[in-house]
């Protein structure tokens, strides 16, 4: 106790340094507990760090590169600790920094063109600036407004991701920033920051710059202030973006990232979703997005130039694959164009649909579907386009897809000739010397065909077109219907839960929630089982210690319950085995019992006790209880066989839990040996025998029977055999079952066995 009290009064190492007469900032930064003390608002430490000299030195550690011959702690540890001190958000330290213009100038000297921009220090700089922007928004924005050249310097460094994050927060592309400090941030709308960002597509060839510039503009489309939002969606801005994207001398990364900005303008939520939800959004039909008509009009002006890039006939590059070769490969830029058109179709703009029909965009995209039969990304986008066209209310668009694009005939042709063509002039060519593989877009064709059938039930135009095509009707009857029956996973008889009706959920979700088991009840019962040590093979003291825990301390969740579900599913078979054993017990009484004892034993609960320390007791209920309801949980071993002398042939391999009805019969009598006589009231002879047996036990042990049982349970080492474990009912004591039966150890001597036979029968 004295040592603990002394430990509590130990002085912090930081306090030890502060107690010195002459100490330096480096000594404090080298101490590991300084961050913890800052978060704990150590008064002496905060008062020291708030001084201007100390704040200036902390800033220098962050923005200035360490000399080449400096120690590692100066290069790595001190900048990190300095950054963490600022991000502890101690108001008085941040106030010292943001209200001193010279210190702010020192901080933003990091973005000067001649300054070295180390990625590590850029991360620390970004964290400090964002912390000031969040906690000291008004004075910080006033400083930036007075030094607007900082915005241009940040745009020039947009290729550094940490700087990009600062720029996104600065222009108000944050969900909560602008609404809370509208007056302080409104001036940013009057700047040309968006034009500076989009011009980075033309002035830089770095893919990192293009990616970060596109990410900044996409963030602006989602959360920008009204002024910036109107500017970025204007036709003039869209035209400026496409001019950079379609310039021949520019790398393909400019086109890809420019189209990402256009997609975000059409559907701002699309970029915020993960891949799984994005895919679901593409294939889930009936959902349309709304966009500014002026924005769509600005994009349609460059649509013809985009479609020219989908022509692969003039490309000469070749990519070898496992199935053959691609001449040329599709490329990320062509895939992005198809994705852009898929989003454009979902907008539902009549002007966009007319332009797509006029330019033959859908027909060209459908050609790509069959020219690249192994590009699943391409297939997903094209399927989305076809679904949106079929569900469109624009009759000319549907007629264009069915008549001019000849969709049904192309589906039937692909189904008939489902091997890759060996034509060397095609973009996808199989490998020489091997048989052509099966094309990889049949699954998408099946879903498109099913969509045609579904829409034919509600659209007379589609229905009439399908009925006129005799080849389609024959293929639908002989191929598609059978294929749907095979692929209907809800009809599979391979162990899939038959109660599963939620077809919208992915099969990889937590399917255990759809099982026919009450997992919560199983978890509760199994918690009680582990609580009383029934499944434990460890020392009995651990099981006894677990008895002292509250119910809340027994943690057994749904996932843990799944571990034993495979055993519990065999409950019906084990119940049948239990009934057979009960019947066999009535038909074949123990040979150790005499004639008069057989009748009484048949109504008792037979307790089987083994010699092993890790045995599991087995209790069965007699059928003679008839209409008696007994709320008793029975523990049975599948491979154990009851014998007359109370031993088992084999240790139990698995355990089954089941419940029977509760007993409300007040005539049950608890005998001293722990057995229960069921039926009518006890006779005087039974009472006398019980009394004599109890007295004899007390003479042998010097204690009462009840005290002996309690002491044996609390100290299991004193008895070579375990006590009978209860059924796990938390409302009962460790030695009492739900019927009031007291658990008892196995008799040790022949006299004890005789006493048990006399009192139990």
UniProtKB/TrEMBL annotation:
| Pfam families reported for this sequence | SAPS
Renumbered to this chain, region (Disordered) spans 581-761
Residue ranges, compositional bias (Polar residues): 581-605, 618-638, 702-739
Biased composition annotated in UniProt, kind: Basic and acidic residues = 639-661, 751-761
Superkingdom of origin organism: Eukaryota
GO molecular function terms noted in the UniProt entry: protein phosphatase binding; protein phosphatase regulator activity
Protein family: Belongs to the SAPS family.
Can you say what this protein is called?
Answer: SIT4 phosphatase-associated family protein
